[in-house]
Amino acid sequence: MHLLICTILAFVSCSEPFESQKPEVEDSALSDTLRYINPVFEPVLADPTVVNVGDEFYAYGTEDNWGEEGGYHLVPVIKSRDLVNWDLVGNSMEKKPDWKERGGIWAPDVTQVGDQFYMYYSFSTWGDPNPGVGLAIAEKPEGPFIDQGKVFDSKEIGVANSIDPFYIEENGQKFLIWGSFHGLYMVELSDDGKKATGEKIQLAGNHLEAAYVFQKEGYYYLFGSAGTCCEGANSTYKVLVGRSENLSGPYIDQDGKDMMDSDSGTLVVGTNAGHIGYAGPGHNAEIVTDSAGQDWLLYHGMDKQKPKLNNGTNRRVLLLDKIVWTNGWPTVAGREPSTTSRSLPIFD
């Protein structure tokens, strides 16, 4: 009898599984579809910004030539429902603004303002003595964004290298925060958002660019990127943060240092250690909170094994990671980009 039972069990184990076993296989397959691995978009979406419209997300990036991997894009726009699976929509601008003779349209910042979509953008070249910030407006998130002209340039506003704008509203007032390695500044905007009014306020020192402010539990968190953005696998870019109880500061890091100091800023995410992973992670987009209350950070970085496009352009792919809040301070796990499978954001 013992031999017969063993024979039957051996036969069963080699045949089709029982019905009760099938859900486990299906659950495993389903769990695979609920996970992702970086990057979430490639080949390029540098200096990303994201806006949520209904159940869709639209992300935008710096003007770039993707070469053999996609050609030229004037402020590309991509679309997703889960922050992971993105589709290229196209270019969000039909033509380049003409208030400067030459330059690239870099680091757009898109926000829904009423029923319209405002894109503040940088207009600059490498080494430009007088870059500036412009505004384009669209009726739909995919564009086309129609240029409204210059908001200010570096000489007018009195801040060198005036690029990397970020728009924020508080108490019905419109503000722009901007700057790139000559201080991060904030200024109030006119009611239509097209001009700077009042006096500028400095928020952080010369070691930062790519400002972004996030509000949580009574604090304003000022994110900025430090280091070199665009040297391929040798890039040292990283995201730092400080916080304040007031939008106008002062912003202090976790060690109590004022963000005006050159060595200040609590590390949020930096380059992966070793030869695998991503170099120069930085210039984060807006933080997105999913249906489960989890915060997510979108930012760019360069795969150390493939940091350049065939035309020599930095291959700055789009990365996504959970934000871990510890004692009121945000980081991503390990303070470096994830390179293994992770659970997807949850959106109802």
Task: Describe the overall structure.
This protein is mainly beta and 348 residues long. The protein has one domain: Glycosyl hydrolase domain, family 43 (Tachylectin-2, Chain A). 8% of the residues lie in helices and 41% in strands. The chain is built from three helices and 26 strands. The strands form eight sheets. Strands 2-3-6-7 form a four-stranded antiparallel sheet, with no helix packed on it. Strands 8-9-10-11 form a four-stranded antiparallel sheet. A hairpin with a 2-residue loop joins β12 and β13. The radius of gyration is 23 Å and the shape is globular. The protein starts with a helix and ends in a 5-residue tail after the last strand.
